[in-house]
UniProtKB/TrEMBL annotation:
Enzyme class: isomerase
GO molecular function terms listed in the Swiss-Prot or TrEMBL record: UDP-arabinopyranose mutase activity
A Gene Ontology BP annotation from the UniProt entry: cell wall organization
Pfam families xref list: RGP
Protein name per UniProt: UDP-arabinopyranose mutase
Species for this entry: Hibiscus syriacus (Rose of Sharon)
Reactions catalysed: UDP-beta-L-arabinofuranose = UDP-beta-L-arabinopyranose
Entry's EC annotation: 5.4.99.30
A cellular-component GO term for this protein: cytosol
Family the entry assigns: Belongs to the RGP family.
Origin superkingdom: Eukaryota
Predominant location: Golgi
Amino acid sequence: MATVSPTPLLKDELDIVIPTIRNLDFLEMWRPFFQPYHLIIVQDGDPSKAIKVPEGFDYELYNRNDINRILGPKASCISFKDSACRCFGYMISKKKYIYTIDDDCFVAKDPSGKDINALEQHIKNLLCPSTPFFFNTLYDPYRDGADFVRGYPFSLREGVPTAVSHGLWLNIPDYDAPTQLVKPLERNKRYVDAIMTIPKGTLFPMCGMNLAFNRELIGPAMYFGLMGDGQPIGRYDDMWAGWCTKVICDHLGLGVKTGLPYIWHSKASNPFVNLKKEYKGIYWQEELIPFFQSVTLTKDCTTVQKCYIEISKQVKAKLGKVDDYFNKLADAMVTWIEAWDELNPSAAKSAELPNGATK
């Protein structure tokens, strides 16, 4: 008798966003897990180059010409010649959830040798609560075989909605250029079977190559900044989004999880090229982190959009003097929110409702 395969989780509620400059042969390996879902491919670089997508995938592809056509002058907020362009896919999506992955990430195996369905694990992470206000020493209390430990307050055991699921990588670790240079042969072989909520008030380095989030809860904060062509910095796109997102999640009472699932990161980027892109970021970061640790959001910041606009004002006021780049970035943050609201008018309207009001 033919076996009936179960319907994939959230099949009609999730888009997979992939930034690329090359043919997407890597999708063959992901076919058993990705084929049921809709893909949004954001083509970076030369828009006249044709990109091949394997047969049988349901996808839409946007290149720079499409981005310019759809956003008009507001397209200036979307990076060019940098994987930060992926955030256009978040904006154009109409689904509740997003999973984003890089085209050099393959299916990893767990310690028993079984292929890891990264997408399924991300969905599980997003669909169960987070515990940002009190750390559980057994990690995620909602997983099978775990629970809240003795001494965990019962009033906090319901948890809060999970906005972000941050996955990890086997093989090539996500290191910065100086670390790559001193450890060129280092590979991550450690599979840690754990998921944890990042505590409230703690920032983290968010990597965009194996990441899922609830677009309705946090989408407008997932702006990957101004990077790449014409900008003084690269490789800080996901970091910027992560810092903004975490500050906003903490303010709005949302959770961020990190840990499982793993993907197999297949190739290391050139550390010398990376150093050129990251140089200013490594230097600026020493001021950026204290800035994000001291950002204050008032009670009036009741929506992600309002929080984000408020952060942009503080970026201009406090980081503008570090470098003029941050004045440009602050303006681009506002442009991004305007473009998001234009493409997602119903979300913008519901965002305007006072707390507790129903449509």
